[in-house]
Amino acid sequence: MNSTHAAERSQVWNGELKKGFWLLGICLLLAGLPGLWDRLAHGHIHANYGSIVTWGLWVAAYIYFIGLSAGAFLVSSLVYVFDIRRFEPIGRLAVFTALVTLLLALLSIVFDLGHMNRAWHVMVYPNFKSPMAWMIWLYSAYFAILLAEMWLLLRRDLVVGGRQRNWRGRLYRLLALASRDDSDAGAQRDLKIVRGIATVGMPLVIMFNGGAGALFGVVAARPHWHSGLFPLLFLISALVSGGALLTLVAAIFQNGLTRNRDTVIALGRLVLGLLLLDVLFQFSEFLIAFRGGIPGHIAGLKLVISGPYWWVFWGWQVGIGTLLPILLLVLPTRHDPRWVALAGLLIAAGLFGLRLNIVIPGLAVEEIHGLGAAVASLRVHPHYFPSLPEWSLTAGIVGLGLILFGIGELLLPYEVQERTSHVSV
Amino acid sequence: MTHREIEQTLQDGPRLDGGSRRAALGWLAKWLGGALAGAVVLEGGKAAAAAAGTEDRSKRKHRYGMVIDTRRCVGCRACMVACKAENKTPPGVFYTVVFDQIVEPRIDDKPLFMTKPCFHCERPSCTDVCPVSATFKRKNDGVVVVDYDRCIGCRYCMTACPYSARWFDFGENYPAVEEKTPYADVPSPEYNQFRQREREKSPIGNVRKCTFCLHLQDEHGKYDKAKGRWPACAKTCTGQAIHFGDLSDPQSDVYHLLRERVAIRLKEELGTEPKVFYLI
Ligand code: SF4
After folding, report:
1. Which chain B residues are Cβ-neighbours of A222 within 8 angstroms?
2. Contacts of residue A42 in chain B, CB cutoff 8 Å?
3. Which of B2, B9, B3, B1 shows the shortest CA–CA distance to B216?
4. A90, A99, A183, B203: which has the fewest C-beta neighbours closer than 10 Å?
5. Residue A129 pLDDT exceeds 90
């Protein structure tokens, strides 16, 4: 009796959340239109990065989104590679999250290119000495894997759903790509293939997200990046952010607060552990650098903790992204999926601060002292704050992401919970 | 400007022939064929590249570099102006920059100026990171160039250069160009490509850098100081602080200066082996 009451309450809560979610998504998407127009009409002229801080908000957004994608995929591999039943109800959701965030990542980085229409050059003239080329090739493969996995996971439900005589049925029939088989044997076969694909995908994801870390790590010219810890840091924080986002999505998506209650709470525990590991890694990086005390090495870290954007680190990354969620996940609030979902939101948001603090302070240190003073140009200046069009475009990309999630929530067939009981591999 | 001329300009390096898609597809077909061998190809490629790297230096016809005498530099910045006039670089792009705070605080009160072009390193850290090999070191004279038609503008090379020698062209213009004065019609002679500055067109959206004014070389890749075919900054230097030439040519100033005086290079610890030396 008590529990049905609670379930009702959380349904109402869910409904409110969903409305807010759509509203936010639409607002952000609209906010992105001016930025998009500006980027297409004027190129990079209104962007605030320059020749010293040459990567800015868009690159930070890019590594943030691929981190989310890689993290979500790795959580899905808990289900499809390691067969951990606890997370089975959100396996499909995790793959969907990985797909959406990968799209956002690609969008962010394409707008950052000086010549967007030449992005195909990386496919045709790859230079495999460059970690960037590796990364792009690897995540193209990853994209294909995600699509295949998503389709296989949905196939049976699409076939079944395709029998409805409405637009939804028609859409499902289209997406099912002429597949008709809705037998259990078919679903089992799908799952087997998914396991195979996921097993290939996992090292791939580790390589490409570790590779994104390596992309920064190999740059010996930037001591802030040049550390063997970087690829690992990228992986750990990808796991944290992906797991955190999934916690949130699992709670909101398709009535998740009631359907996925236990999974959300379990995810919270997993994310807490990963977050603590991440803190340990970061701490190690700071500790070693500051104890060594070589000015060039700590210049970037000093900017992080006491530069003009100290608040990004202390407020955003440490406060919102680390301390608060740790409290929520340790105190008794950890038993309430709503609080756990909030912790997920905070962590996922806080890690954006981490991404900014990787990209920008690494570049904001003059490589040769006095460069900014030598020429009077806004493009040659170690100070960077994203311009309005930069914010706008980024907001639009986030908004697009929210809307894609919204559409997914409306269209994706509900995960059939019982299936777990009679599908065994 | 014909294909042939572009090729001549960007000699030897991997290149995109004026954006020809057919060439690109041909290349793709070839590569796919090769890719079947997978890792083997990569490894082989690396070995070949390494071998080529060592061969390069002995085979190279010229080894252009600079010796800059900081004691002769008066900080007039004529080199910066000359470079701008020669290459028609837009605002925010400076192929050379004169530093006056490089050592701060100074022990004595003597001013110290340092002009800093691209160092055209023997082992450049910028070229290896380019995902599309758009920037590379020319085999015959060691000048590091950018293929504007291939560069996608990712700016990875800028992060990798330890000397801030690379500049992104955001598309800004000086008033003379903006207001369409006759100056706006003068193309940049860079790479002998004579590109007009047009919106969205390369070099806007590309990374740009000092080329040692290679458009002033003759067909044999030689400069001629007497005829004024000489890098603009060195030609203009009022204090005669910038010495340019072939570092391995016993006839050249630079060759002798390096033997007679004590020279340093910046950030030796990174192993980039710059070809611009400073006398202090
Ligand atoms: S900006 Fe151009 S030259 Fe530099 S790494 Fe990217 S593609 Fe290569």
Report:
1. 159
2. 171
3. B9
4. A183
5. yes
- Where residue A14 sits, what CATH number does that domain have? 1.20.1630.10
Q: What residues of A are in contact with residue B42 (Cβ under 8 Å)? A: 128
For residue B152, the ligand 1 atom closest to its alpha carbon is 7
Query: Residue A239 corresponds to which amino acid?
Result: L
Question: How far is Cα B187 from Cα B174, in angstroms, rounded to an integer?
Answer: 14
pLDDT in tens, B44-56: 344 444 444 444 4
Instruction: Look at the block and give the residue holding tokens 């003759």.
Output: B218
Distance of CA A362 to the CA centre of its chain: 21
Helix (H, G, I), strand (E, B) or coil at B21: helix
Give the containing element (helix H, strand E) for B140: none
Instruction: Give the domain extent around B139.
Output: 3-279
ipTM of the complex: 0.90
Instruction: Determine the structural domain holding residue A285 and report its residue range.
Output: 2-421
Report the distance separating Cα B150 and Cα B139, nearest Å.
Answer: 18
pTM given for the model: 0.88
CATH, residue B84: 3.30.70.20
Round the CA-based radius of gyration of chain A to a whole number and report it.
22
Cα–ligand 1 centroid distance for B132 (angstroms): 7
How far is C-alpha A332 from the geometric centre of its chain's CA atoms?
Answer: 28
Q: A60 and chain B: CB distance < 8 Å anywhere?
A: no
Assess A117–B contact: CB distance below 8 Å, yes or no.
no
* Residue in chain B nearest A364 by alpha carbon: B159
pLDDT score, position B52: 42
pLDDT tens for residues B141-172? 999 999 999 999 999 999 999 999 999 999 99
What residues pair up with B144 in beta bridges, in sequence order? B137
**How many structural domains compose chain B?**
1
Looking at the structure of chain A, the number of domains it has is 1
**The residue to which tokens 């690109």 are assigned:** B24
Nearest CA to ligand 1 atom 6: B154
Determine the pLDDT at residue A15. Answer: 72
